[in-house]
Amino acid sequence: MAQRELTVQEFMTASPHTVGAEQTLATAHAKLREYGIRHLPVLRGGELVGVLTERDLALIEGIKEVDPQQVRVEEAMSPSLYTVAVDVPLERVADEMARKKYGCAVVAHNGKVVGVLTTVDVCRALAQLLRGQRSQP
After folding, report:
1. What gap in Å lies between CA 7 and CA 111, rounded to an integer?
2. Distance (Å, whole) CA 115 – CA 48
3. According to the model, what pLDDT value does residue 133 have?
4. At what angle do helices 90-100 and 119-135 cross, to 10 degrees?
């Protein structure tokens, strides 16, 4: 009996928090802390233009001359990001994330950000799959 292929949609964090490209680093940092997350898709006019991570913030805020109240997100974000559709097989995305050392994949549907798949989400998926294997005869 063939197993059903798992998709990104089943394990992603749906309706992720986002940040505007024109907002300040202080605003982004506050969102990360408030929601206990590490990745923020960056939007400009509703369009995905990058991703800002907790690591990005730590790196740029560590520069003495940087004022998080003045510097905009677009100056610290990574404009190159890994974007996938909701129906992409989880196996393929997890493999790509591992191979390229991506911390997340932004999930889009019809041009809109609908989720984020992080390494934590992939670990949860792995744990669930391993539990399922152990319970099989």
Report:
1. 18
2. 12
3. 65
4. 130
Angle (CA) 108 104 135, round 5°: 100
Domain ranges of the chain: 8-135
* Whether 71 contacts 47, CB under 8 Å: no
pLDDT digits 0-9 by tens, 103-126: 999 999 988 999 999 999 999 999
> What are the residues whose beta carbons fall under 8 Å from the beta carbon of 97, sequence distance 6 or more?
82, 103, 104, 105, 117, 119, 122
Domain 8-135 has CATH 3.10.580.10: yes
3 — pLDDT class (breaks 50, 70, 90): low
> Which DSSP string corresponds to 61-90?
HTSTT--TTTSBGGGTSBS---EEETTSBH
C-alpha angle 57-20-112 in degrees, rounded to nearest 5: 115
Q: Which amino acid is at 21?
A: A
Query: What residue type is 101 in one-letter code?
Result: K
The one-letter code for the residue type at 84 is: V
Location of structure tokens 């949860």: 124
